[in-house]
Amino acid sequence: MFPPRDVALNLLMAVGAVRARAEARHVTGVMDDPGLAAAMFARLTERVPGGVDGLRGARVLELGPGQGLGLLGRARDAGARCSAFDVADYADPSTVAGLGVDLRVGPAAHLPWADATFDVVWSSSVLEHLRDPAAMLAEARRVLRPGGVHVAYVDLESHHGGRREAATMYDFLRYPQWMWDLMTSRRSIWVNRLRRSDWERLFRATAFDEVVVDVDEPPCGLAALREQRYLDAVDDEDLLARRIVIAGRASPQAG
Questions:
Q1: Rounded-to-integer distance, Cα 138 and Cα 132, Å
Q2: 102 bridge partner residues
Q3: Within a 10 A sphere around the Cβ of 156, how many other Cβ atoms?
Q4: From CA 191, how far away is CA 172, in angstroms rounded?
């Protein structure tokens, strides 16, 4: 990243015509790719009690499916009753209708379902883009029945390229928050920069217990990351988590 250029690009996104063009080209949700959807479905259902079989008769909510409903298509085939929530109408209405998905659109601060509606809430590469992740986790907890599970795949790398190289894998951590926002706040590459330990803490603070974190480690290894001086304040456990699947059970004691 190059701060002067990125600040200029971010400011340009305030121009209506520029923003409209960028939004028209933006791709969100990749789960219409059968290979990606199958792999992600396998990862998420590893943390659902009973696995794929545990979806039979379950009510499943996907957060932020974007343009791809491949995960919910597989859940439906496994016998689940499927719903989805997004902040915009990204999905093809004919696909939504064909799958029988209850898709609702609205602001991220509120999920438009009653308390204790779902058995499973899941998402793929969504939570890292939330401006107020604690609020969404609280909403996910609210709509889960006691004992239900929230499973999330979270991409903790830079969304600006250079994902495999130690020098650029976490390059968003080079900048103070004010600079990061000035560079990216209107752009799709903005992420909240939370680390593995932050997500685990947030899940536990939101009345999720039995929190489990599966980690994808970086190909470059810890030693190469430790050579990057801007990462000195990040502990080893967080450096070694480039992507995670985090799962928590909704505590029966809170609701």
A1: 10
A2: 83
A3: 23
A4: 9
Q: Decide if 148 contacts 119 (C-beta within 8 A).
A: yes
The whole-angstrom separation of Cα 173 and Cα 139 is 28
Chain segment 143-181, per-residue pLDDT in tens: 999 999 999 999 999 987 767 899 999 999 999 999 999
**CATH of the structural domain 30-168+191-250, one choice from 3.40.50.1820, 3.30.360.10, 3.20.20.80, 3.40.50.150:** 3.40.50.150
pLDDT at 13: 87
Report how far residue 42's alpha carbon sits from residue 209's, in angstroms, rounded to the nearest whole number.
22
Amino acid at 85: F
DSSP, residue by residue, 126-164: -GGG-SSHHHHHHHHHHHEEEEEEEEEEEE-S-SSS--S
Q: CA 170, CA 66: separation in Å to the nearest integer? A: 25
Provide the token pair at 79: 């016998």
- pLDDT tens profile 55-101: 999 999 999 998 889 999 999 999 999 999 999 888 888 889 999 99
Positive or negative: CA dihedral 16, 19, 24, 29? negative
Domain coordinates in residue numbering, the chain: 30-168+191-250
pTM exceeding 0.70: yes
The residue whose two tokens read 């593995």 is 196
CA distance 134 to 127: 10
Do 155 and 243 meet the contact criterion of CB atoms below 8 Å apart?
yes
